[in-house]
Amino acid sequence: MKAIHIFVFALVFFAALQPDAPALAYLDPGTGSMLLQLLLGGVAGALVVGKLYWHRFTALFGHTARVGGSPSDSGESDQSKRDGQ
Amino acid sequence: MANRSSAVAGSFRDPSGRVYDDGGRILRSVTASAAADFEFVRSSGFYDALVAQQRAIGAQVVDEDGSFALETEFDPAERHMAALHCILEHPRLPIISYPYEWCFPALKAAALHHLRIHREALERGVTLSDASAYNIQFLGAKPIFIDTLSFRAYREGEFWHGHRQFCEQFLNPLLLRAYLGIPHNAWYRGTLEGIASQDILKLLPWTKKFGWNILTQLVLPSRFDESARKGKVAVDAKVLENSGFPRTAYLNLLKRLESWIAGLTPRGQKPTIWQNYSQVNSYAEPEVSAKRAFIKTFIEAEKPGMVWDLGCNTGDYSELALSCGADYVVGWDFDQGALEAAFDRAQSKDLAFTPLFLDATNPSPDQGWAQAERGGMGKRDRPDACLALAFIHHLAIARNIPLPEIIDWLLAVAPCGVVEFVPKEDQTVQIMLQIREDIFAGYDFDSFITCLESRAAIVKIEKVGDRHLVWFKK
């Protein structure tokens, strides 16, 4: 199995991992398609997606998950720190 | 210009322009905001090449400087009317149809058409701004792209914004039939925008979800969407802009979808009863010849341009009508197997014949925005003649429609036609009545002909076996 296959399976897993937050079903900008294309776009894009989901992985080991993680953040954003998230 | 133009209701979405029906001429405005992209595509020669190959609809610039003002029913302040770049004229298509009226191979042909055009466009520095199945129509069984303004200049690194729309409007309806054996028509007609990935995923067996194509095109984007809706991840324009989507990856995505869709077939496809009808029907050879001769005389005498073949089955008589001089035939049927065989006939013989799905007791309604976006069957251009061969007993016996109402409906469809009346004693009607009470006391040839005579002229009647062929004219 290629590394990308393992990566995608891991993403499917982590994307489903976090407890549900209230869904805003009417707000749907097609994020899924864009993230998929980031993944398919190559290593750099895949890293961006991986980073978005990294907190899910760390949450498994006791770290508090961060809501709305942005890939441009190098760590927790100031906003999320202020919000205590 | 006289006040005759009206905006085509389904063309409101794109701010690049709008389509107008100007007393039969099909015109399209191109707004100033779309001018740069339009001129880029025009100068690339890409669109003209598609037109030359009959893969996209002709688009003649009829007003170069934009001074031509359309007199419309709409508020002149409508945003794009303020600054027009030019006006295009398209040839009028023989029939407008919608994806919920297409059979599986037609939707598949449309999907592949879209993907191939998009791939070729990308190679020429052009792209498509959306992936709507409504941008495709049919000439015979050949798909043709009709939305000229969907083409625009490709910007290096941009994402395929139509990906989700493509999945919902093409891919998922095809998967519904290919993996679950359910025709897409009723669901598609209900939603209009296709089938959402999260909905079809609830139906697919879990084993299918581990397939690479399903996993990447459906499962993963749906999970991502869900995450985004719940606020678990957020992707902004900056992230997308910084990362970009390389053109090679874009092309690979289109190619991957193309090869996947090209291999899809309806699940467990076995010939349906109507698909085999021409081989197993109750007609003996001399009766078939007599029936064909009757249709031939009718078509040659009436010289119809457009014929609607109601209950077209696999298109035997549609093809006959074409060979006798009709310009175009639209076949309507409710049986998927028959429609697929008809589509295959039209495709393999390159006929001017488009088979479409119709349940005559529940035809496509006016629907969408303001109940006008997608016109119902009654809004399509009327044919010059119709064939209703072994058709009306399905309405009268199977669906309890009174004969006078069926006749009124037929006369509203076309000014002349041929009806084949199948009597109660016929084997096919007997099968229908096998397990139900015969409540159809008024269903006989005399009642039929009396009713028809009171509404239209009878040109010719011929008895073929136990059935009657009736040529009527209003």
Structure description:
The complex is a heterodimer of chains A (85) and B (474). With 85 residues, chain A is mostly helical. Chain A has a domain at 1-16 and 44-85. Helix content of chain A is 53%, strand content 0%. Chain A contains 4 helices and no strands. In chain A, helix 2 packs across helix 3 (43-59). The longest helix of chain A is centred in the middle third of the chain and has 17 residues, at 43-59. Chain A starts with a helix and ends with a helix. Residues 65-85 of chain A have low confidence and may be disordered. Chain B is globular, with a radius of gyration of 25 Å. Chain B has helices at 35-44, 46-52, 104-123, 163-180, 185-191, 197-203, 212-229, 237-243, 247-262, 277-280, 285-302, 316-323, 336-348, 392-398, 403-413, 427-433, 445-453, and strands at 5-7, 19-22, 25-31, 60-63, 84-90, 126-128, 136-139, 142-145, 151-153, 306-310, 328-333, 353-357, 385-388, 416-421, 457-464, 467-473. Chain B has 3 domains: 1-92; 95-269; 277-473, Vaccinia Virus protein VP39 (Rossmann fold, 3-Layer(aba) Sandwich), CATH 3.40.50. The model of chain B has no long low-confidence stretch (mean pLDDT 90). In chain B, the strands form 4 sheets. In chain B, strands 12-11-10-13-14-16-15 form a 7-stranded mixed β-sheet, with helices on both faces. With 474 residues, chain B is of the alpha/beta class. At the A-B interface, helix 1, helix 2 and helix 3 of A face helix 4, helix 7, helix 8 and helix 9 of B.
